[in-house]
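Can't paste images in this forum, so I'm doing it all in text. The chain is below; anyone willing to post the predicted structure tokens underneath?
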Amino acid sequence: MGSTVPSLYLDPQIRDWVLFPITLVMILVGVLRYYVVILLQSSPKKLPRAAIREQRALARSSVLRATSANSPIPLSLYQSISQNLSKAFAEGTYLKDGPPKQGEAQTPPNPLSDPAAMDGMMAGMRTQMVMMVPQMIVMGWINFFFEGFVLIKLPFPLTLGFKSMLQRGIQTADMDVRWVSSLSWYFLNFFGLNGLYRIILGGDEAADDTQNLAASPFAMATPQAGQPQDFNKLLKAERDHLEFAEGLHKWIGDDVETRILKRYGRL
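Text version of the structure:
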């Protein structure tokens, strides 16, 4: 006769006093963490006029290049605007610190000397602390009070490869792989509650643990977050792009009369 795996029967009080409390605590911690992050977010500082002018010049040049193949501006006017921008970029007219001096060594901006960059780093570190500290407390609470508990049995079959993932903290070789331990239930909630957070919080992903913990506190995606950029190099590279785009220019108004007559069958 082949050996059979013994069945387990869970006390209903485990469901009421362990399974439901762990799930409820993780949901409430995620919602509370979302509102704490909102409170810690500082309003963006206003940029000085020179910095805004520097950014707008680069944006204006990018728009001019993007429309060169189907431009609403005639060739003569396009070339005039493009050449004026190229000359200003070469001379450093739009740089917020003014044109670079002759013979002065150009060094990349130091993020540690930029107050905006430091504010962005501190904001990222505060967000990371708000994300990590509650999870460490919840995980320690589960390990201290519910270590070795078996909470739930999954209703579908699984291979033995899931045993180490679903039965953390339980060293049994003959237990059915579908049983889930308390620590594994914590990790399942950690990665599985993101959809519920989006429903409760209106589609915002601020309570998404996996994204916030994977991001570096020093990573800023946009210049507004404090990331320093060397606009001197950017404007010089944009100058080369403008010269290349001049050869691709095509005015949208070329032969517009002929095209209209052909469209309405008058030609």
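The longest strand covers residues 150-153. The chain is about 55% helix and 5% strand.
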